Amino acid sequence: MMTSYLNRRTALLAHMQSQGGGVAILSTSSEMTRNSDCHFPFRHDSYFYYLTNFTEPEAVVVLVAGKTNQTILFCREKNLEREIWDGYRFGPDAAKNQFGFDAAYPTESLDTELPGLLSDASTLFHSWGHDTRLDAQIQNAVSKVKEKSRSGVLPPHKTQDIHALLNEMRLVKDDTEIATMQRAAIISAAAHERTMRMTRPGMMEYELEAELLHEFRRRGAQAPAYNSIVAAGANACVLHYNTNNSLIRDGDLILIDAGCEFDSYASDITRTFPANGRFSGPQQALYEIVLASQTAALAHAVTGARYMDGHNAAVRVLTQGMLDTGLLDKNKVGSLDDAIQSGAFRQFYMHGTGHWIGLDVHDAGNYRDNNATADTGTITDEKPWRRLQEGMALTIEPGIYVRPSGDVPEQFWNIGIRIEDDIVITANGPLNLSRDTPKTIAEIEAVMKRP
Ligand code: GLY
Ligand code: MN
Ligand code: MN
Question: Over the stretch 66-78, which tens digit does the pLDDT of each residue have?
Answer without folding.
Answer: 999 999 999 999 9
